[in-house]
Fold this sequence. Notes:
The chain is an alpha/beta fold. Helices cover 42% and strands 12% of the residues. The protein has 10 helices and 6 strands. Strands 1-3-4-5-2-6 form a 6-stranded mixed beta sheet, sandwiched between helices. Helix 6 crosses helix 8 (223-240) and helix 8 (223-240) packs across helix 9 (249-258). The protein is elongated, with a radius of gyration of 21 Å.
Amino acid sequence: PSAMREVILEVPKVNWEDIGGQREVKTQLMEAVEWPQKHQEAFKRIGTHPPTGILLFGPPGCSKTLMARAVTSEAGLNFLAVKGPELFSKWVGESEKAVRTLFAKARANAPSIIFFDEIDGLAVIRGKESDGVSVSDRVMSQLLVELDGLHQRVDITVIAATNRPDKIDPALLRSGCFDRLLYLGPPNETDREEILHIHLRKIPCSSDVSIRDLACLTEGCTGADISLICREAAISALEENLDSSEITMKHLKTAIGQVQPSDIQSYKELSTKFQR
Length: 276
Ligand code: ATP
């Protein structure tokens, strides 16, 4: 049995315009991913090397996955995505093999991005095996070996995402591993206006719909919450009348009342604690 379902290679179609706010992170990601490939000589001349891995961290629903896909798409790369917990297999040896296979596939399809979602899932200590080494230890050492092998290559970038950087094995945050940390926080009012524009782009809205007012009313919401609100509003318009051809402010306000904003308070200290 294979340790994980086969990793699908894809070329995402997400553009920077599909992400509201987060301008600073967009620029930093582009620099971290594209510069090393485009300006190899410049890096050599100045005696430095680009980051090996990039860790995107922040509360749920604040565009970590979207960002990884967008930078891949904008830079024209191939995308290989796995979830941290998927790398575990109860079959001895299978998990390390899965990691090796993943990196081999990234090399065969370079230039590429490997995206580890829920990387904190690797820190979970599983039951110890007979020789005393846990599966997560094995996966971790294989991952460190693979990351080490990437130092000479600029055509493969590893991006990881987590809501809980405090749960990540510190070995992964050392220099030469995930040594660039980028925080994706909740949207402010202006960002929410942009996000609302994006999600209402394809939904016909009546003339009473004020994105300004909605941005104000969605205080405390994440991008994922706003996406849900827009979909709910469209559904309630249809529920009201199957012949509806547009949504009104009333539908949106009702949806805002129904959607429970994500709990992002508990993530507040993350940005200052881990930013570097
Ligand atoms: P999780 O930690 O739960 O995996 P995440 O940070 O990876 O969350 P995404 O999967 O990127 O969040 O976002 C979920 C959805 O929310 C996106 O598919 C998109 O529809 C919407 N969304 C989130 N942030 C934004 C944004 N800044 N602009 C536009 N849409 C957004």
